[in-house]
């Protein structure tokens, strides 16, 4: 088994010579360590002169060093790329939030900054959305048990509950509730924090309820003081760790003699109480609404019957929904302002809270759950809509990205989002999806361009797939949990549209008059490409 030897340190505050000198001395005495993990403030107000020597390569860190981002406005300029980057040789900024997985299999979750006190959160802060997305990225992975290490700058609020004293630090007032929530969910084996200029090694706490849950590993929380402090408080912590993935399960869950109750027990109970039944993870019904707007003036029904029932007599009828469906066009639940085109078997509608004003959905008029369930006539019209949208978006200097999530959804929704051609290539788009999938341990596979999804997924199989307007496709067979907004997160990320604030549709929903105006504008622009007005 690969035993990793790590060092963790508290606020460096620009004292690079002090910390790296100490690391050299420890390595000379105790042998080589694999990496140094830095929490708290790495840079300080007087960092520039010392930092310049490392940034220019005149000096080099003696060990691969990984650090969290800024905790205040003054040091933001040291971090040029919010998503993480190499700052100097052997010195890497991990990023705003995420998971770092080394070649040994060790999983390190990290969250940069301090908890935001205002909205929108400043660049050096995190909010509830950041924590929710980091949790979702890990909790959605099959058989998730926890992470090996969690790095945050603030302490978790209430970490001292059921524990040994934290000295002068009042853990009921100090730190962040969001970090407590994160630690309670991610169940790290080690959690490091700083900022309070204090050293505190809490007694290990359990991550399960005795006699109610299967035993799980314990968490060790360690807060570190500032480097070179005059009180000689501990700021550097050495430890050896075998990745959880390589450990014998029985050894992993061994409980030490001094283990305590979980300090976030109350938080966990509150979260458990508020958890809805599994089916409640269905997309909220209000996410997308469509319109049977009378303004389809030039359109005529294909054979004089009502549009919603205009399929040829020989066409196989789609199954009926078991309850109210917000997407079946004939449903009384359907609202009336976002439909932009109605064909014989499918219709097109703007997305409510779309990533952009021209984010559209292709939907079957009848009730079908997924692409693999579609009859040949419906599938043929879906293909015609894709071709029309490709031509339309290309005329505006854009390419579309389409995705479907057949998981916790009742009615097929093909999300179609345009991306400017000069912003990224089709390879960039694929790489962004694959990289994010790998980070979340989702196996996203490229499948042949001209293959049909029905060839790789049987009806009733949960899956997620992405399709570019070039015909290139990525496919994931969902076997466990899956983040509901995965496709949207990737497209909103810095790697693509760079609009992370639009990752949650709820933050983007406009008022009804504005939505109706957007639909009218789209309908007008799309008209020359809309085959349904000519067929």
Characteristic key phrases:
8-stranded antiparallel β-sheet; RNA lariat debranching enzyme activator activity; 23 strands; Purple Acid Phosphatase, chain A, domain 2; 2 domains; 19% strand; Cwf19-like_C_dom-2; 535 residues; CWF19-like protein 1; Cwf19-like; HIT-like_sf
Write the SSE topology.
Blueprint lengths: L3 E6 L6 H15 L4 E4 L9 H8 L9 E3 L17 E4 L2 E3 L3 E5 L5 E5 L2 E2 L9 E2 L1 H12 L9 E4 L24 H10 L3 E4 L6 E2 L3 E2 L11 E6 L12 E6 L7 H4 L12 H10 L64 E4 L3 E5 L9 E5 L11 H20 L2 E9 L7 E7 L5 H14 L5 E3 L5 H4 L6 E6 L4 E5 L8 H7 L19 H15 L9
Parallel strand pairs: 1-2, 2-3, 3-5, 7-10, 8-9, 10-11, 11-14
Antiparallel strand pairs: 1-15, 4-5, 6-7, 12-14, 13-14, 16-17, 17-18, 18-20, 19-20, 19-22, 21-23, 22-23
Pfam family, one: CwfJ_C_1
Family: Belongs to the CWF19 family.
Protein name: CWF19-like protein 1
Explain what this protein looks like in three dimensions.
The protein has 535 residues and is α/β, with parallel strands linked by helices. The protein has two domains: 5-273, Purple Acid Phosphatase, chain A, domain 2 (4-Layer Sandwich); 336-529, HIT family, subunit A, CATH 3.30.428.10. It contains eleven helices and 23 strands. It has helices spanning 16-30, 48-55, 128-139, 177-186, 249-252, 265-274, 376-395, 426-439, 453-456, 486-492, 512-526; strands at 4-9, 35-38, 65-67, 85-88, 91-93, 97-101, 107-111, 114-115, 125-126, 149-152, 190-193, 200-201, 205-206, 218-223, 236-241, 339-342, 346-350, 360-364, 398-406, 414-420, 445-447, 463-468, 473-477. The protein has an eight-stranded antiparallel β-sheet, with helices on both faces. Strand 4 (85-88) and strand 5 form a beta hairpin. Helix 3 (128-139) runs parallel beside helix 4. Residues 314-422 form the Cwf19-like C-terminal domain. Belongs to the CWF19 family. One of its GO terms (biological process) is mRNA splicing, via spliceosome. Residues 300-310 have a biased composition (Basic and acidic residues). One of its GO terms (cellular component) is post-mRNA release spliceosomal complex.
